[in-house]
Amino acid sequence: MEKQTLEKPGAMKLPPGFRFHPTDEELVLLYLRRKVFSYPLPAAVIPEIDMGKSDPWIICGGGEQERYFFHLRTAKYPNGSRSNRATGSGYWKATGKDKPIIVPKGNQVVGMKKLFVFYSGRPSAGSRTDWVMHEYRLAGAETAGRRDWVLCCVFMKKRAARMESEAEQQRIVRFFDFMRENERDASPSRRLSSPSSSLSLSCVTELSEGNGNGEDCSFSSSSFS
């Protein structure tokens, strides 16, 4: 599938070091409401994406960082009000109860937040993934007759990313455990020197603590002579 451009031509890009972390209220009032009523946006940092043509990993550009986008909802059936949330590789399934977005001043409900989980495959036999989406929509009758824009935030659950990192660390530790076992079983003429043993143990410690690039962990050719 062709990778979709995430930013419209002429869209403003954040300079290095800046991050887009708005609150729920800011997303609804400053971005979504302005989008629905065709008002100027504070900044052109949220693109328009057709969810039906974009799987979550395409929206996020192959990374795990959260991405915001506007989506124009379409009906799943011609005579129904249910939205179509299917993609090329799966579908988004709603879970849990909708959360109201409340402005403290006046205790007014300005929007609703719905949670979705992405399933790969067909709805009848889909497999749950770790991709999650928050969908924001306006509340109230003032939007009647206007285009059905929603604001979405897609990301991968941190638990999944953390588990993948921990699994990689375990593979590194098992690798060095295997090296030490070979060292103990080797004949005296082929046994690794003690400096190599301390070096491998140091590497296990560094890599298991998060230094997964291995830049500070090297072996001397004389260690295996």
Automatic annotation (TrEMBL):
Q: Which residues form the NAC domain?
A: 14-157
Where does this protein come from, organism-wise? Apostasia shenzhenica
| Recorded GO MF terms | DNA binding
Which GO BP annotation is one of this protein's? regulation of DNA-templated transcription
Lineage of producing organism: Eukaryota, Viridiplantae, Streptophyta, Embryophyta, Tracheophyta
The record, for Gene3D superfamilies, names:
NAC domain (2.170.150.80)
What name has this protein been given in UniProt? NAC transcription factor 29
- Keywords for the protein's UniProt record, in alphabetical order: DNA-binding, Nucleus, Transcription, Transcription regulation
